[in-house]
Amino acid sequence: MCGRFLNKLPAAEIARIFGTRNALPNYPVRFNIAPTDPVLAVRFNQETRARSLDPLRWGLVPHWAKDLKIGARLINARAETAASLPAFRDAFKSRRCIVPASGFYEWQKIRGAKQPYAIVPEGEALFGFAGLWENWRDKAAGQGAEWVRTCTILTGEPNELLAPIHDRMPAILPPEAWSAWLGETAASARELQALLKPYPARHMRAYAVSTKVNSVRNDDPSLLEPVPPA
Questions:
Q1: How far is CA 172 from CA 51, 97, 120, 197, in A?
Q2: Where are the domains positioned within the chain?
């Protein structure tokens, strides 16, 4: 799974990389983004034919959910089944997004303990996680209830770098796949599924970091400092 990640690029730089056109969201750099936190996501508007960079709540809440609680359990969707599961299939068909990230964290089980690792881009400005987004509002609150926009990050099989650390990794899209995933260019369900393959290990680097990252209260650049592995 992908349960923590970071985003140390300013929103203006992310907007430049993805070519979004809307007003910049007020979003600070983050080094320990956790489930249900706001995250930045790139979406494509079919009517305006433009990309936007928007803050979404991490943890997808299907439109039929009674409350937001389910989102904490749906921070990830398995790439192998997202197109068919009721919680994700509508979003997979028409509400796909990309979640920019400067890296993510994963924990390796070692002799009963867990060693955290930072996985960061190698030779790239950022990762583009394949994501899905959804609209939700509290039906019990009536027509005046505000819409809440949520998202999930897809995960798949690990590459050879991540396999010794964990059996899953985020589905990372190379720039040449962004247009198809966002829906700017036509792609079949099979073609979309083919985009969710393991990201090349040569484009990422993994190293051990302090257990300070275990606490969501810690959110600063020191979390990225390397430490000797346990």
A1: 19, 12, 12, 8
A2: 5-224
Q: Which of 2, 97, 134, 151 is catalytic?
A: 2
Could you report the per-residue pLDDT of 197-225, keeping only the tens digit for each? 999 999 999 999 999 999 999 999 999 99
Residue range 5-224 in CATH 3.90.1680.10: yes
Q: Encoding tokens for residue 170?
A: 């985020």
SS3 assignment, position 124: coil
Q: In terms of Cα–Cα distance, which of 122, 131, 189 is closest to 161?
A: 122
30 vs 174: CA distance, rounded Å: 22
State residue 144's pLDDT score: 76
Q: Is there a catalytic annotation at residue 106?
A: yes
Choosing from 47, 80, 106, 191, the catalytic residue is 106
Strands (E), 91-209: 96-101, 103-110, 113-121, 127-136, 148-156, 169-170, 204-208
Q: Where are the alpha helices (DSSP H) in 42-158?
A: 89-94
151 classed as catalytic = no
